[in-house]
């Protein structure tokens, strides 16, 4: 059978990895796909010199639209990232009747609904395994492996940079800012590292996971996003002393009154497997009603781990080229006509337990005042610890764990605590999830 012709857009970290993996494992990949998968065209402004020997015979230009419009190309692999011109390129590829493989989580989270609709209309596939958690086949698992289940919740460490930073803060007692520059130097961070540390990258991925889990349209704008920039090494250490670890989690959960979609730092019990996922590694915990909790672990970023997912999609697309478009696995796991319009819960309605760090003067009655405010808002304290004040500081940190409470009540209580004369600075609130099966 003749090789399938692939046009690669972007020869950066993931593009280079894709070239390497496709070339090194060509024979095995062809045995799996049923035919050779060959990069025939590529668009890139520059690429690493070590790719040169592997790109012999590939027609390379700097005009991605020329590749998308080339009739010889059957599958477009979009590895440029960002919204534009990635969206225009993908839509043009679809209009030209080409299948698309993309690693672009931002594009899918923001424009996936229109992209999938166009692909459906044209009978082409858009595969995006590499968009979430790098090399972990979590999209395949949610869409196919768990198809028997009602998914109850998904909780994932889905940003490698953030996890690397939190791990270093715990292991080496280092400060946030110091570790961030190291993550950037190691090549894990997004072009714009605020996407990693402010939680946007994780929110893109969570938006996709939430849609796949619950069969709802992609709704990035309704995902609650909080990053890790306010977490101090003291918080990391205090959480540890209480038996918890701070992880930056993306959580999608089905509740009676809607779907929770939220990304924020989270205390999780240290004994959970996912609490021990360290460094740049990612993990996604999925709870299905039939299967129970399942955990998927692997490298969430990096050249070849992400290429592993890109190439798996290429194999998938190649295998299913001749199938009836109506009988393919739906983009968002559920048939497009059966997507549901379940409401996304505003954060104010979400209930979680919390870790609070309050800086207060060491005076009689202070604890009673704070406890009084919490009590008036129906917030029950589970544990409270008084920590040593920092050198030269008058106030000392009080660390508390609360029972589950609606976010709205906690917001009001925090505002009142911050207004107390004896309290200085902002209250640090980190949500807590037991993640029990
Ligand atoms: N910047 C991302 C991360 C890369 O750190 O996980 C993979 O999406």
Structure commentary:
This protein has 437 residues and is an alpha/beta fold. It has three domains: 4-135 and 303-335, NAD(P)-binding Rossmann-like Domain (Rossmann fold, 3-Layer(aba) Sandwich), CATH 3.40.50.720; 138-299, 2-Layer Sandwich (Dihydrodipicolinate Reductase, domain 2), CATH 3.30.360.10; 349-432, ACT domain (Alpha-Beta Plaits, 2-Layer Sandwich), CATH 3.30.70.260. The chain is 35% helix and 26% strand. It contains 14 helices and 17 strands. The chain has helices at residues 13-24, 26-33, 64-68, 86-95, 105-122, 138-145, 160-172, 176-185, 194-197, 200-214, 233-241, 303-319, 366-376, 407-418, and strands at residues 4-9, 37-43, 59-61, 75-78, 99-102, 126-127, 151-157, 224-225, 244-255, 258-269, 281-288, 292-299, 351-361, 381-386, 395-402, 405-406, 423-432. Strands 7, 8, 9, 10, 11, 12, 13, 14, 15, 16 and 17 form an eleven-stranded mixed β-sheet that branches. α4 links the parallel β4 (75-78) and β5 (99-102). The longest helix has 18 residues, at 105-122. 48% of the residues are buried. The model has no long low-confidence stretch (mean pLDDT 96). It binds L-homoserine.
